[in-house]
Specification:
This protein is of the alpha/beta class. It is built from ten helices and 15 strands. The strands form three sheets. It has a seven-stranded mixed sheet with strand order 6-5-4-7-8-9-10, with helices on both faces. Strands 1, 11, 12, 13, 14 and 15 form a six-stranded mixed sheet that branches. A two-stranded antiparallel ribbon has the order 2-3.
Length: 373
């Protein structure tokens, strides 16, 4: 039985209790597939003394050795022939050395379509109304392999696109931020009737809002407009402001209420589209699980404590992204949210430096062993 397919076909994307057992079976199926089809991944698990065939090996998902995200920045791990890859995606690092590399085949993409279809339907992202899209990210070019660029382009199909404008425009062989052009476009679009949807890096969104305020410009975007964010603050982390201040600025400059601001969370190494609820919380969807690990020895922590975020998903068949250790700190909370979703939620605290969590390639084995010498 294809437990992965069955998991991604569950109608309610947040049926946490119902999906618990199925998720474990899907992870086992995915892990065994990679173990049998990926020599390097098998060697890693064998060296760490983990065998997915052992009885009860994956009853406790925390026992599955997670691969640190930095490992993918030095290794393209493929569990399918290269000719079967539909996409080779990279993370949004500024140089090749800082970019993770993953492959996606048709099976992985179809599972991704299943989860996006259900999550976007649940959060009412789909629309049949003609819409103007403003992307606070890279202008779409097929040779741009960054995952965030491809995701942003895909987002422009959530409604019939009348226009697509990009902050990072491809000029002279490189991407250049053009905030002035977007400011002019938003002023123009505010005078029309078509809703505007934005998506992209919160940093560039903030820089534009800040620039418009400095210019003494504020507008009221048409009814149905939506501000969506994704991709994190990256190298602009020092400029990051609180969500409350961000929401207040968005309302002041664009007239967007906070209930019309939606944030997404995901990564090339974890291609699940986490979507905030109406209370701006990242509830755990059927397609993922979270283990919060202690910074010092990487043992699992109970809900409510701060640690390194370990993300799991059985979605990808081309690359072993089954269990990935991020370089983000977070807290997994018991569900005390009144949004109607019956699942715990993840609070992302921020990113820690590489020197703090030992994710260099040479130290990957130590990390996978749980910090043991």
């Amino acid at each position: 039985m294809d437990h992965i397919k069955k998991l991604f076909k569950l109608k309610n994307p947040y049926d946490y209790d119902k999906s618990e057992k199925l998720f474990s079976k899907a992870i086992e199926q995915n892990c065994i597939y990679h173990y049998e089809h990926n020599v390097e991944y098998k060697a890693l698990l064998d060296k760490l003394g983990f065998c997915p065939y052992d009885d009860g090996a994956l009853v406790d998902l925390s026992k599955l050795p997670p691969l640190p995200t930095l490992y993918f920045k030095h290794h393209l791990l493929l569990s399918v022939p290269n000719k079967k890859l539909v996409i080779k995606a990279t993370s949004s690092g500024t140089s090749g050395q800082n970019q993770s590399m993953v492959g996606l085949d048709f099976y992985s993409l179809w599972r991704g379509f299943d989860e996006v279809k259900r999550l976007f339907a649940y959060h009412k992202i789909w629309s049949l109304k003609p819409t103007r899209f403003v992307i606070f990210g890279y202008e779409h070019k097929f040779k741009n392999k960054k995952g965030i660029a491809q995701t942003s382009w895909g987002f422009t199909f959530t409604a019939p696109a009348v226009s697509k404008d990009y902050v990072l425009r491809y000029r002279g062989g490189e991407y250049v931020a053009d905030l002035d052009n977007i400011e002019e476009k938003l002023i123009k679009y505010s005078k029309g009737k078509l809703p505007v949807r934005t998506l992209g890096f919160p940093a560039y969104t903030y820089f534009l809002l800040k620039q418009m305020k400095e210019h003494g410009v504020s507008v009221k975007l048409p009814k149905g407009s939506m501000l969506t964010l994704g991709g994190g603050w990256k190298q602009f982390y020092a400029e990051k402001i609180s969500k409350e201040d961000f929401y207040a600025l968005a309302y002041e400059i664009l007239g967007i209420e906070k209930e019309n601001i939606v944030e997404f969370f995901g990564a090339v190494e974890h291609p699940v589209m986490w979507t905030q609820c109406k209370n701006h919380k990242f509830h755990v969807p059927n397609y993922a699980r979270v283990i919060i690990r202690d910074v010092d020895d990487l043992h699992p922590l109970p809900n409510g404590q701060v640690g390194i975020i370990n993300l799991l998903t059985p979605m990808c068949r081309a690359t072993p992204l089954t269990s990935v250790m991020t370089d983000d700190l977070g807290i997994l909370h018991d569900n005390d949210c009144d949004c109607g979703i019956c699942a715990p939620y993840l609070e992302i605290i921020g990113r820690v430096g590489i020197e703090d969590i030992k994710t260099c390639a040479a130290g990957a084995e130590d990390l996978l062993k749980g910090g043991k010498k």
